[in-house]
Fold:
Amino acid sequence: MEQTNQGQNFITAPDDNAEVAMTHPLFEKHRALLEEAQAAITRRTHWTPYPENPRAYGETALDEGARAFEAYHNAQFYLDQPDVLGRCSGEVSPYGLPLNVSYPRCSPEGLIAAAKSVMLPWVRAGIEARTGVCLEILARLNASSAEMAYALMHTTGQSLARAFLTGGPQAQSRGLEALAWAYREMARIPGQAEWQRSPSQHLEKRFMVAPLGISLVIGSATQPTWNAYPALFASLATGNPVIVKPHPTAILPLALTVAVARQVLKEAGFAADLVSLLVGDPDDTPVVRDVSLHSSIRLIDYAGAPDLGNWLIENARQARLFVETGGVNCVLIDSTSDYKALLKNLVFSLCLDAGQLRSSPRLIFVSREGVQTPDDLIGPEQFRRELAFALGKFIEDPARAVEILGAIQSPATVARIRAAGDLAETVAEVLRPSEPVSHPQWTAARIFTPLLVAATADQQHLYMEERFGPIAMVVTTANSAESLALAETTMRDKGALNFLVHATRPHVKQLAEEVALRVGVTLSFNLTGAVLINQSAGFADFHASGANPAATCGMIDAAFVANRFYFAQVQQHYQSPTSID
Structure:
C-alpha cells in the first residue's frame, strides 16, 4: 500500500517518514520556533520571531556590539579555510572610517573541492539534522545582532538603527522563513513506502532529499544579510554546500555570518567547509564571473546591479539562478482622502536609506487633470511644488535626516546623482536638487538628500530606467489612464517589485489591480503613516514575483526552496521480514 503525507503542512510527520523521524538535539532544541514559523508562512499575518528592540538583547548590548566591532579594525579576520593564497582588504565605511580588516583569500577551486568532499555526510544526516543546525546558526546570529549592526552600518551606509533592524532581526527572520518553507517542502514526501500493483509487482521504495550541488551566494553591497540569508539557509537546509561571495565593499557582515555558521557546523559534528567565504580584490568581477561558470556551481543567488545579473542569466547556464536586480518602481497619484498624509508618506519612502533599496519608488505619475482631495483639486504644478516643499521640511533637521537617509554606500551612486542632476538641468526641471548633509558625528560621511526631477510623459528616455540611489522623477501625463499605461509599460519592460497607487475612485483602483496582475508586482493602495512601499514584512509579504525583469523568482515561496533539491529514489522487490530470515 502506498503511503504519503502530501497534505502535511507542519512538522509533525508520520512514523514511516524515515528521514523526518530521525531526531537531532538541535532540531528538538528549536522545534517550537520552527512550528511557529511554519504556522506563520501559512497565516501570512504579522509575526516577529526575533526581538527588534536592541534593549531586548540587554541594556548594554549596543555598547558591547560596538566594542566587538572595534576589535576588527586593523586586524586579520580568521577563518580556517582551505587553499589560502593570501589576504585582502579594502573596505572603507561610507561614514569615512577605514576598516582595514583583512580576510583570507582562498582559491575558488580549493573551496569548491572542499565543499564537494564534505557534502555526502551532510546529505545523509537527514532533514531534521540539517534544519536543526541551521536553526542554531540563526540563534547565534540573533544573539550577535548588535555586533552585526555596526558591521552593517560601516559597510552599507545604513544608520545604526536601520542596520540593527533590517540587517539583524529582520534578515534573520527571512532566513527562518526560508527554513520553514524548506522543511515543509522536504517533509512532504515519506522516507519510504510499500508499493504493490499485483502479487508479482510488489516493491519497497525509499526516498531521500538530494541536493543539486554547490550553491554560490553573491552578496549585495547595500543589504548583504537581508538578501543573502534566505539563499544561505534554503540551500544549506536542502543539502547544498554554500560558498558566500560578499561584495568587495561589504565583506564584514557576511564574514561574520560565515564564521558563525562554520563554528556551529563543527560543534554539531559536521565539516565547517559546508559554508565558506570567497573574497577577492576590490575589483573582483573576473573572479565572480569565473566561479559562476564553474561546472560544480549548480545554484546561484544574486541581488544587485543589473549588469552582473543579466550576465549571469545569459551565461551561467549550468546553474539554477535566483537573481534580483531591482527595477523602476512606480507611484500613481490620482486621488486621496488625506493629501498631507500622502505627501509625508511618499517623502519618507523617498528618503529611506537614501533610495538604496531595490524596492524604493523611482517614478511618480500625476496627471494634468490634477489630484482630487476632499477639499479641492490639486493641479500637477502645485503637487510638484508641494512634494518638493515637503521633502525640504522633512530633511531640514540634519540630525533627524541622517538617521533616515543613512550614508551613500558607493561613490558611484554619488556620481549617478550628479549625472542625473546635470541631465535634468538640460532637458527637464529640477524640483529639488540633491544636497550634501553633515553628520553630527561622522564628518566625512557621504550623505545626500534626494534629487527630485520633473519630466513629461514623452521623455521616456529620461525616466524609463532605474537610477539607483536617492533619485526620483515626477512624470506629468494627460490623465490617469495614460499614467496607468506608462506605469505598466515601464514595469513590464524594465522590471519592478512594487506599485503604489493613491486613488479613491473605484475604477482607477480596479484598473491598477489589473495592471499589477499583468506585470507581477506587489500593489499597495493609499499608504500613509509608517507603512512604506519599500519595506517588506517577513512571513507576510512575497518579495518579488519572477514575473518581470526585476527578478527571476519569488522570494520567499515554495519554488524558492524546492528548486534547490530533488527526491532521490531507490526501489527493490519487497521482502517480508520472515523471508529475510
